[in-house]
Amino acid sequence: MWKFSIRRILIMIPQVILLSVLIFLMAQAMPGDALSGLIDPNLDPKEIEERREELGLNDAWYVQYTDWAKGAIQGDFGQSFRFKMPVSELINQRIINTGWLALATLFFTYIIAVPLGITSGRFNDTWADRMITGYTYIGFATPLFIFALVTLWIFGFQLGWFPTSGSVTPGLEPGTFDYVMSKFYHLLLPALSGALITTVSTVQYLRSEIIDTKQKDFIVTARAKGASESRVYNRHVLRNSLLPIAAFFGFEITGLIGGSIFIESIFAYPGMGQLFLESINLRDYTVVTSVVLLFGIASIVGALISDIILSLVDPRIRIK
Q: Which of 136, 160, 186, 236 has the smallest C-beta neighbourhood within 10 Å, fewest atoms?
């Protein structure tokens, strides 16, 4: 187990390096540079050139990449010229909100998906199965941003059950009970909106696996030996059917990253996704490259978590 985990982590290192090189080169290919927006364009061109030389913007790309990577490793992502503050400080302000939103969405996703998938798979071709399958088909056909807009309009603006923007009620003191409850209250609707769409693929995977597993020979043998139906499902069917769910866990993180961009923008929730879109609109490339790098690393870590969970559940993967 430890050998597999260490080997998998070592594989992750070149992936992160390659990702950082690609992001840096793409940022270099964009119009403008780190000096754009920081200085008055009406300045003397000689003075601008001196500033470029001073900042190392005339160096070869690999020299600039090395300096940028050294700074990123130390948590220094540069300066945001639009927000007039260090990018690392800006990210620290937003990443906590995105982290809580992702955790809440994952929690609701599995709380909803697992019971529905088990019910649909165990009682397939019944009315319950048809209703759950119908829900998943609607979910597959509905884009996340449209579903989020509809839930915001119904539960936020029409019924007034949830706040329509922000992450906390202004004026509350951090650390108080009211502050915590306000954070949770603002989190509920965005998290549920994301979870109700994210959950459909997990329900379908679990349903398919249960239907496939319960027809296999070892299940027939267990029934022939007189095992009760609950024992057959709890000890044999579910144990084998949860493998793809475990494999899917890490990729759920990748999906949440993409979903957070839409969810946070629609609900005006101040997180990394909203920061990413704001930075693109403001052409704040320093922030864009930093956020893309963090999103990419989160995706790689998600794949790592999937592999480690799979190796725990299925020892054959460790052998390979």
A: 160
Count of C-beta atoms within a 10 Å radius of residue 185: 14
The two structure tokens encoding residue 110: 């599995």
Q: Provide the domain count of the chain.
A: 2
CA 299 to each of CA 88, 296, 304: distance values in angstroms, whole numbers, following the listed order: 20, 5, 9
Which of 70, 86, 102 represents a domain boundary (last residue)?
86
> Is the pTM above the cut of 0.85?
no
Whether residues 282 and 246 fall in one domain: yes
pLDDT above 70: residue 319:
no
Residue at a domain's end among 25, 53, 86: 86
pLDDT digits (tens, 9 = 90+) for 75-107: 888 777 777 788 888 888 888 888 888 889 888
The region that residue 36 occupies, defined by phi over 0 for left and psi between -120 and 50 for alpha, beta otherwise, is beta
CB 210, CB 238: distance < 8 Å: yes
Identify the three-state secondary structure at position 159: coil
Same domain, 223 and 280: yes
Cβ neighbors of 49 (< 8 A, separation 6 or more) are none
- Domain extent, residue 38, equals 1-86
Tokens of 87: 């990018």
Distance between start and end Cα atoms, the chain: 12
Same domain, yes or no: 94 and 240: yes
Query: Distance between CA atoms of 45 and 175, rounded to whole angstroms?
Result: 51
